[in-house]
Amino acid sequence: MSDALLLLEPVACPLCGGRTATALHTERDLALGVPGRFHVARCNDCGLLHQNPRVRLEDFARMYPPHYGPHARDPQLSRLLRRRGRIVRSVLAARLGYHHLPAEDLRWHERLGAVLASRKIRRSFPPWTGAGRLLDVGCASGGFLQQMATVGWEVAGVEFDPEAAAKAW
Questions:
Q1: The domain containing residue 33 runs over which residues?
Q2: What pLDDT was estimated at residue 169?
């Protein structure tokens, strides 16, 4: 992977072709340290969350080296959900509308943990709107899909790398 910044290009909504989107947040690459910042936007026409602007297609392969971690099969949920399941479910129910998740009485140290982790949790999960379908394009081995299915989403994924797809759950 080159240390050069990846060039981004604005794109139409991949679902409906809409040309306008509202920027939700920008994040650096937390998994691989790919230089640059990446943007999540919501299509103003259909509501789809997608990366916009996104990495140019000709640069896409530079983002994922052969040792890319998500290509390894991990049958467990994300680290956040595994380590702090009760806290995550509490924040999701209280802050993002996941009222279908079991309500749990948290101990004092878990309540403190919920306050400290709330921002990260809210950025890791979309709001619940009563039902949800999620398509992850480039889903690697499906860890994110598994996480989202656990909290109630109907999920599907597409992976173009045959090695990663073979390891998907």
A1: 1-63
A2: 66
For 3-58, write each residue's pLDDT tens digit: 466 788 999 998 999 999 999 888 877 666 677 788 999 999 999 989 999 888 88
Separation between Cα atoms, residue 82 and residue 78, nearest integer Å? 6
Q: pLDDT at position 1, please?
A: 44
Residue 72 and residue 111: Cα distance in Å, rounded?
A: 33
- Pairing label, strands 54-55, 133-137: unpaired
CATH code at position 15: 2.20.25
Tokens of 68: 């890319």
Whether 98 and 49 map to the same domain: the answer is no
Beta strands in the chain (DSSP E): 8-9, 21-28, 37-43, 49-51, 54-55, 133-137, 154-158
Looking at per-residue pLDDT, the higher value among 112 and 166 belongs to 112
Residue 122 above 70 pLDDT?
yes
Q: Is 17 left (phi over 0), alpha (psi -120 to 50) or beta?
A: left
Report the alpha-carbon distance of residue 49 to residue 13 in Å, rounded: 9
